[in-house]
Amino acid sequence: MTGDGPLQISPQAAPDELVAVAEALERISGWTNCATPRGGPRGVALSVLTTIASAGPLRISDLAGREHISQPGMTHVVDRLVEAGLAERRTDRADGRIVLVAATPAGREHLAAQRSSRVDALVARLSLLSPRDRHALCASIEVLNDLSTSPTPEEAP
């Protein structure tokens, strides 16, 4: 990810080693989700909560576009988050006709607790690796951080 930007390769034309890395990252993501304690939002609701906690208050239509679901579907997701006390609806200060969805302090606390649980589970799993394997993973921290903070295709200019 460092350099002139991401190389555009179709999944069908990707070198085997890139496919293998992508598949391994996907399995780790799935394992991490399974290792996270139950309770609270999951799936799209968790993604929406994460988005509004990091990007700030957004319109339901903007959230629906980001999550690739219908506006009525997003309204239902937001209703569940609001009922759980994890999100709130606010009037836009610039235009009182617009309703924004924002994370509440409880929503931010939930995300922090969930993130901490996932990190704890991963640290426990990583501690089982050999020193050589841990060193190999640690050598890739910068690349993984760059990858995790790069824009999604929808966010790219």
Blueprint of the fold:
Blueprint: H1 16-35, H2 43-55, E1 58-59, H3 60-67, H4 71-83, E2 87-91, E3 99-103, H5 105-126, H6 131-138, H7 141-149
Antiparallel strand pairs: 1-3, 2-3
Radius of gyration: 18 Å
Largest sheet: 3 strands, antiparallel
pLDDT < 50 runs, ≥5 residues: none
Q: Supply the number of structural domains.
A: 1
Coarse morphology: globular
Strand order of the largest sheet: 1-3-2
CATH architecture: Orthogonal Bundle
Distance between the termini: 16 Å
The third-level CATH topology is: Arc Repressor Mutant, subunit A
Tally of alpha and pi helices: 7
Summed over residues and divided by their number, the pLDDT gives a mean of 86
H/E element sequence = HHEHHEEHHH
Looking at the chains present, what oligomeric state does this protein adopt?
Answer: single chain
Secondary-structure content class: mainly alpha
The first-level CATH class is given as Mainly Alpha
- The CATH superfamily is identified as Winged helix-like DNA-binding domain superfamily/Winged helix DNA-binding domain
List keywords for this structure.
mainly alpha, Arc Repressor Mutant, subunit A, 8% strand, 3 strands, three-stranded antiparallel β-sheet, 157 residues
Brief synopsis:
The protein is mainly α and 157 residues long. The chain is built from 7 helices and 3 strands.
